[in-house]
Amino acid sequence: MPLALYALAIGGFAIGLTEFVIMGLLPEVAADFAVSETAAGYLISGYALSVALGAIALTAMLTRVDRKKALLGLMVLFIAGNLLSALAPDYTTMMIGRIVAALCHGAFFGIGAVVAAQLVAPNKRAAALSIMFAGLTIANVMGVPLGTLLGQAAGWRSTFWAITLMGVLSFAAIALLVPARTGADAARNPDGLRGEFRVFRSPQVWLSIGITVLGYGGMFGAFTYIAFTLTEVSGFVAASVPWLLMLFGAGLFVGNIIGGRLADKSLGLTLLVLLVALTAVLAVFALTAGNQAMTLLSLVLMGGFGFATVPGLQMRVMAHAAEAPTLASSANIAAFNVGNALGAWVGGLTLAAGLGFTSPIWAGAVVTVGGLAVLLVAAFAPGGEFRRPARTPRGTPTLTTPVPTH
Predict the structure, then answer these.
(1) Other CB atoms closer than 10 Å to residue 334's CB: what's the count?
(2) Which residues are in coiled coils (predicted)?
(3) How many angstroms from the chain centroid is the CA of residue 156?
(4) Domain boundaries, given as residue ranges, for the chain
(5) What is the pLDDT of residues 245-289, one digit of tens each?
């Protein structure tokens, strides 16, 4: 695989660390700024909303910008946001720093996914995406626990200084390793932004986004309240939760790599099998959460099957928006975050209704079934994986065109 993919993975690691490490530092941040735990939690939700906004807005603004320059500019924005967070004298400035850093998130993964797919042969593109997203999974497995420990030992600001340095490293890696012009630039839609938005006329693009929202949202809804399940149902002590979540993170990493390789062999069948398996794992988890050994196994499998869908979900929307994949790719990144919010909201409703601490896992299974249903509709619809592929207009550049990796 080209070294440029690993440069993108470094950026993914830094961005993933920014998104998730704040969860372990909320008590310290709240105490430092003298705000409530609820107000501190807005630093998470504010980030998530900004990801969805930036995914569309910044990608639209960068439509005619060279992809490498766009990625470098986004990393500058990322560095600036985290530097502002590290120096923040008050809560408002901290929130602004979080928003600035978040704006680059969706656009980086959206544009980066198109670049990654064009750096390799057509039969390796989902695997290439999995390498880029591997940075995000490693951030969960290693970065978040280590970042939390650093923040607790040397102050929460030290973690954001470390993330800022990771941003600088990512900028340097992209500058050195990503080709000056990629196939993504060669395949740019000649109509610019108007051409990019035209892909949203495709029902398959919207169906792909729907699969992402529901298929990924189900897993995240179960994960959002997992600490309550682990302590109140499985009987683990609270101090063990961060280390138990490393099992979940290990599942994310392995699932992401395997899912990318399988999606290159058969995209539709891979997504179908993975969503069925994820639904089954969530149901078994809910039924056996009182057994600690089964809980450990379920954590690994939930992370594995849940994130194994990510390369395929991203590849699907790009394949159905081949004439202008960049904005559709970023929109699908936003869809992951919408799924996160939807899953957490549905899971929260079940808890508020008094259905118990396994109810968010059941809710996640139901939401995942919704994603499976949309996938079946999409796969058998015109242009779907289980129907004859839609004919591509003559002369239209597509993601299936091999591009030299120089």
Answers:
(1) 24
(2) none
(3) 24
(4) 1-186, 189-388+397-401
(5) 788 888 988 998 899 899 989 889 999 999 999 999 999 999 999
Confidence check: pLDDT of 391 > 70: no
C-beta of residue 289 within 8 angstroms of C-beta of residue 361:
yes
User: 189-388+397-401: what CATH class?
Assistant: mainly alpha
Q: Which residue has the tokens 């899971």?
A: 347
DSSP string, 220-252: HHHHHTHHHIIIIIS---GGGHHHHHHHHHHHH
Tell me if 194 sits within 8 A of 324, measured CB to CB.
no
CA of residue 203 relative to chain centroid, distance: 23
Contact 256, 135 (CB under 8 A): no
Distance CA 44, CA 30 (A): 13
pLDDT at 216 exceeding the cut of 80:
yes
> What's the rounded Cα separation, in Å, for the pair 406 and 362?
48
Alpha carbon 112 to chain centroid, angstroms = 12
Where would I find the H helices in 289-397?
Answer: 292-319, 325-352, 359-380
Determine whether domain 1-186 maps to CATH 1.20.1250.20. yes
Structure-token pair, residue 217:
């949202």
Cα-to-chain-centroid distance, residue 351: 25
* Cα–Cα distance for residue pair 267/336, rounded to 1 Å: 18
What are the distances in angstroms from CA 94 to CA 99, 328, 363, 383? 9, 31, 34, 46
Q: Do the domains 1-186 and 189-388+397-401 sit in the same CATH topology, yes or no?
A: yes
pTM: 0.78
Cβ neighbour number for residue 201 with a 10 Å cutoff? 8
In whole angstroms, what is the distance from residue 279 CA to residue 300 CA? 14
Rg (CA), the chain: 20
